[in-house]
Amino acid sequence: MNNHQRVENVLTLAALGFLVLGCLTVLAPFVSALLWAVILSFSTWRIFERVLQACGQRQGLAAGLMTLGLALLLLAPMLMVGAQLGENMDNLSGAARRFLERGVPAPPGWLLALPVIGPHVPEYWALLPGGADGDAASAQALAWLEAQAKPISTWLLQRGLDLGQALLQLTLSVFASFYLYRDGVDVVARLRAGMERIAGKRAQSLIDLAARTVRGVVYGILGTALAQGIAAAIGFTLAGIPGPLVLGLLTFVVSIIPAGPPLIWIPATLWLLNEGSPGWAAFMGLWGFFIISGIDNVVRPWLISQGAALPFILVLLGVVGGLLTFGFIGVFLGPTLLAVGFAMLREWTRERRLREDEQGA
Prior knowledge:
The protein has helices at about 5-25, 30-45, 45-55, 60-100, 110, 120-125, 135-180, 185-200, 205-240, 245-255, 260-275, 280-305, 310-325, 330-360. By secondary structure, the chain is an all-alpha fold.
């Protein structure tokens, strides 16, 4: 090889490197949406095959129907929650103004009956607006609220932007899933060919392992979270708790972490008790314990029967790290990626240990 050919090869590789870097830079803002689209389409591929058969093997029609289904399942609830969240914020601000104008009622009896802290409740209760020092406390509270108005407004604006970004990411994921459904067979063939060039004969086993893990995580973790979120929203609606859709969405999010749903339904139960509805509070407590939290003990093991158990620490790291890295979608994307990596690492160490045992024998 002469110098001219060497220079030409170096320039070709440099141009290819810059091209890859440029493509990655362009796609960087959409990585989380594209990854989530791959996971969604892959985990629902069996459903797509049935829809495709019902549509007479028309790829475009079947892909469109599946995309419409994902939009109704993912985007519609987010839009409803966003609308209800804005309405609830207006109600909350109005309730805060009325609270400061009228003051707080007398402390509830159940709070006074609590051991240790109950006898001290009247002393601190009098410091609230409407208590013994109600006028002074109200003035202080109004002054504090006015000082906090700008930070609170900024925080609410940021949360609204986060919700809008999450909705945009979900929309991109649903949009990209259409092309993955339509051209999925060709994409899988190219992926298999690329994996074979990298991993050789083990490529197919690695792909099968990743497939089982992704399905197990999506069906196990996300399926359980979805069931708990729906059950929570139904319970909150029956009990007459304000914002049942918002609370149901929060339950869906925290359900990814084990023992997360009680963080939502226990305060809701206490709120009902404070509102003077002990019957509905008892109902909410029983519904939360046996239905919402009970789903985690019944549905999750059944859904992950294909084997995608993930240690608690990896679930927690996946949720927090995914949220910090990818935003809202990262709450679901993080545990899925860690599950695939953990499964492949476990498989690799198992095969290596078997080879060492065979060599020792």
